[in-house]
Amino acid sequence: TLIFPTSTDAARHVATLMAKMIRENNASGVPTVLGLATGSTPVGLYRELIRMHKEENLDFSRVVTFNLDEYFPMPKDDSHSYNRWMQETLFSHINIKPENVHIPDGTVKPGAVADHCERYEEAIRKAGGIDIQILGIGRTGHIGFNEPGSPKTARTRLVTLDPVTKRDAASGFFGEENVPQQAITMGTATILEARKVILMAFGEHKAPTVQKAVENPPSESIAASFLQEHSDSTFILDAAAASDL
Ligand code: GLP
């Protein structure tokens, strides 16, 4: 666990670490495979990466990305779509190649979801696995959309959102009744296979969940608690999110 005075300091730390890996890999001509998250938490990180691209020539042309999740069903251009959000927040501002971007597809037919999920896992494997996985954490302790009860062995799949998660998303959807019931998410096992995992949590409202994830024994009731069993995982917190530790 690393605690920073502010979320800006924390975002800068993570961006620096990612930039270092991207630059080293670029120099050796190998791709960097990033696992990316949505939500308010990684916004500062993406802003800093964009700044590094524009001001310090950070080159994303060999970077390959896999996003954690997408609501289901969800059109790609919908204002709530994580596909659209990633384009607007990060991808349209850097020189990443569209063919290197992977995000679960909320437009596949219900009958084709299982196959889509399998192909998503396969694409991660073909890319050589994830070098750095960025995570936020939901109030239910979810990483991606691995809600309480998600086993450690879970792979990319269709899940039902927890009522707490829907409540937290409600304002963005103008009411809880408009929040999709389901999502496609990378599984806990998929996430745990990343070589390096960074979970960021900022703000007082995250403190109780962070405390359980860090200090309780790993269990299905808090998916993020499984990160304790990962050999290279770090919780990056601001002082407020660390206040219950
Ligand atoms: C959503 C996302 C998660 C994210 C969580 C927390 O449920 N699917 O990936 O970590 O919200 O969001 P925020 O960062 O806005 O607090």
Automatic annotation (TrEMBL):
Say which domain of life the source belongs to. Answer: Bacteria
Glucosamine/galactosamine-6-phosphate isomerase domain sequence ranges: 6-231
Q: What is this protein called?
A: Glucosamine-6-phosphate deaminase
Name the species this protein comes from.
Telmatocola sphagniphila
Q: Report where the shown chain sits in the full-length sequence: first residue, last residue, total length.
A: 13 to 257 of 621
